[in-house]
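FORM 12-B: Structure-to-Sequence Request
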């Protein structure tokens, strides 16, 4: 994958990582970091936060 450099002005690393993870349906930190244009540690941190955020809603629709 190629790093996307066309992010809207002002988008945070979290917004970029979340967008890539959800669009690509992947939680692979290296893939997400490359596509979002952030370092792997940042991607891992954001993905961990996302996993925690979504863990409470995973079964709500069952």
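FORM 12-B RESPONSE
SEQUENCE OUT:
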């Amino acid at each position: 994958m190629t790093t996307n450099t066309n992010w809207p002005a002002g988008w945070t690393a979290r917004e970029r990582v979340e967008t890539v993870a959800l669009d690509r349906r992947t939680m692979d930190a290296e893939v997400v970091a490359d596509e979002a244009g952030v370092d792997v540690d940042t991607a891992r941190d954001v993905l961990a936060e996302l996993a925690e955020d979504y863990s409470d809603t995973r079964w709500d629709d069952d």
